[in-house]
Amino acid sequence: KAGVTQTPRYLIKTRGQQVTLSCSPISGHRSVSWYQQTPGQGLQFLFEYFSETQRNKGNFPGRFSGRQFSNSRSEMNVSTLELGDSALYLCASSSARIQGTGELFFGEGSRLTVL
Amino acid sequence: QKEVEQDPGPLSVPEGAIVSLNCTYSNSAFQYFMWYRQYSRKGPELLMYTYSSGNKEDGRFTAQVDKSSKYISLFIRDSQPSDSATYLCAMTDSNDYKLSFGAGTTVTVRA
User: Which domains does chain B carry?
Assistant: First the structure.
């Protein structure tokens, strides 16, 4: 069974640009969550999608957005990049119908560097 | 103050030692408690999952939850160099089901 796949694995952008990250969940998983991981703040919840609907959102500015497609694949977008957006962005999928009550399967992440 | 506090370490122990990790939290609505392990350049993977208070054992790993003290622990017995990783506690708020992670503790087991 294939795991969670995230693309691209590494990318470098400059301030003001935008970026789109992609996540393919484990087959059959309908819940996809996104997290930002930095050395200073640790893992912070961005948002969670279930069957194409955003069910939950963390405390991030509106520059961070996401969506989920009918095949459960998800994308997140960050517009007007800032230096502080440099981080590892992790996607996780789950078969749990209720967020946070089941095992999360994480991808290896997309490492974004903003110059 | 963060909702979940975890000492980032680093923690270095000799092979065979018992590793003790813990997290404290402030939100009394946390009901689901998890420990994830993250190897360098990898995503986290679930180690232990506990609902509400109590102990849970799985092989060399034991998770404890004390809701009265808002304190959770993970013990690793007979530690191995392959246990060298960052260990993250996580917990879910039963009101909004958001998952909150600790900062992670980096553990090195010396051969």
Answer: 4-110 (2.60.40.10)
